[in-house]
């Protein structure tokens, strides 16, 4: 992700498990965090043993406070609404 290299703030991301479940998280380094999830390290017990994982969505969101607000808002959505955001049919900013 070349854009990620240039942005040093916080990212919101959505990972899909092998059984189709969506997991939402925030990080400052998406590639590192996805690798941690894939290896079963550091939190996210919900993802352990659920691989292979695929990154479905990531977007730079600014500071940690903004990232946490967006993460919480996205997690509250029903699956169909979350997929609209993931697929780009609904802007992330509309959640706040």
Structure, explained:
It comes from Halotalea alkalilenta. This is GIY-YIG domain-containing protein. Residues 8-84 form the GIY-YIG domain. With 96 residues, the protein is α+β, with helices and mostly antiparallel strands. Helices cover 38% and strands 23% of the residues. The protein contains 4 helices and 3 strands, in the order H-E-E-H-E-H-H.
Sum up the structure in keywords:
about 100 residues, alpha+beta, GIY-YIG endonuclease, 3-stranded antiparallel sheet, 4 helices
In short:
Helix content is 38%, strand content 23%.
Topology:
Layout: H1 2-6, E1 10-16, E2 22-27, H2 30-39, E3 54-62, H3 64-76, H4 79-86
Antiparallel strand pairs: 1-2, 1-3
Mean pLDDT: 90
Global shape: globular
Low-confidence stretches: none
What proportion of the residues is helical, as a percent range? 25-40%
CATH architecture: 3-Layer(aba) Sandwich
CATH class: Alpha Beta
- Count of DSSP-assigned helices: 4
Number of strands: 3
CATH superfamily: GIY-YIG endonuclease
Separation, N- and C-terminal Cα atoms: 26 Å
Strand order of the largest sheet: 2-1-3
Hey, roughly how much beta strand do the residues contain?
Answer: 15-25%
Number of domains: 1
Largest sheet: 3 strands, antiparallel
Order of helices and strands: HEEHEHH
CATH fold naming: GIY-YIG endonuclease
Our Rg estimate from Cα atoms comes to: 13 Å
Helices and strands: which structural class? alpha+beta
